[in-house]
Every structure is written in C-alpha cells, then in structure tokens.
Amino acid sequence: MSVNQTAFRLQTEESESGITVSFPADTALTESNAEELQRGLLALVAGRTHPNLIVDLSGITILTSIILSKFIAINRNVRDAGGHLTLLNPTPTVRMVFTVTRLDALLDIKPAASGMPA
Questions:
Q1: Which residue range forms the structural domain that includes residue 29?
Q2: Cβ(86)–Cβ(110) under 8 Å?
C-alpha cells in the first residue's frame, strides 16, 4: 500500500451543519504537509463567524505529533471565532494516537455513526 506523504487536495463540502473536509484514501499527515494542512483548514473558516469545521479522518493512515499540534492550533482558532471543530471518523490507529496523547479529552473526536456536533 502506498502512502501519499506530500501534497494533497482538501476535499470540501459545505452544508447547513458546517464545512466538511475529507482527504483521499491513504493520506499521511506528516511534517511534509503540516503547514499546508493548517493553511488550508484555516482558510476555510477565515472571516466566518461561528464556523463549524468537520474534518473527516477516514482517509488518514498516519498522523504525526506535528499534526497533533496543528489540530490544537486550528481548534483554538475555530473556537476563538465562536465555532466548533469536530474530528470525524478516525481510523482505529489514528484514534489510538489521540487516546494515547490524551488529546481526545481536548478535541472533539467522533465516530461517523455519532453524527455532527449539536
């Protein structure tokens, strides 16, 4: 299985519940694309009041510590704008990273079946 460790396109969809972002299958979020990820996600919510950003992690196979710090910063920016960040549908491996680092207590991480934030 090959893993895309460089540039990726954020796939976005806007609905009443917010902006949903997803990634191509087998995407690795690493130091090589951390800045691109942060810029892309922050650009989606820039200038919006009360933005709801939903990041679908189902296509993510690898997540490094720098990406965790980016999600913390993005969460802070979205909350400062009165919005909400939800990390949706992490794979078991990605979910374990959030659990081991205890970031599941700081970030809103939901399986796909639980739906969107209220």
A1: 11-114
A2: yes
